[in-house]
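User: My collaborator sent over this chain with a note saying "see what the structure looks like." That's all I know about it. Can you take a look?
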Amino acid sequence: MATIKSCSSRLLPVALLLCGLIVMGSTPGLEAKDKDGKVCIEICLEADYMTCPSTGNAKLNPACNCCLANEDGCTIYLKDGTVEKCPRT
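Assistant: Without extra context I'll predict from the sequence alone. Here is the result:
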């Protein structure tokens, strides 16, 4: 009996951890998606600001990358002085 009790007390934390991982892996909405629902790569550029056609020259808070920009044709201005032009589709 002592062996069963000892073994089960060690397995409980492992079982709970596995259940938690399964639930987290099956929860929708945890991955980054663009406006069309396409899964985006979760890489954030070192951006300073961005501009988009709808706002003219207004400096906007930058999106992490072009996939996550709210509209097509935006330009993300990086901190090193280079730019990332988001394609128009």
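A starting point for your reply to your collaborator: The first strand starts at residue 47 and ends at 51.
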